[in-house]
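Entry 14. Ran structure prediction on the chain below.
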Amino acid sequence: SDRIGAVERAFNARQGITIVDDMLPQRPDFKHTPDGATERDAHMALVRSWYDENGYNPETGLPTQETCTRLNIADVAKTLAEDGPLKKWDGPLLMDLECYPKGGARF
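Output, structure tokens:
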């Protein structure tokens, strides 16, 4: 399962999905508050800690060369290294809340 997770992470990185995309969704009315920022910071600290403990680079979220070698997927690390900087995700955008029934309000 570690090996599959590392390959999935590398695949996602090649598709432009980065550590920035590892955030949990927040309610729109909470997201732009000081408590929302505190929650995001705490979540990112946990994510980075998990990456570090599991042999991933805590700054990029990618498996390290050592981890790839240990998991016998050194070719994955080589491909990531050769591809250079990762492009930002340019996939479909989320709809504005106004597009949802009742403006995204929860009842």
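The chain has a mean pLDDT of 84. Will compare against last week's run tomorrow.
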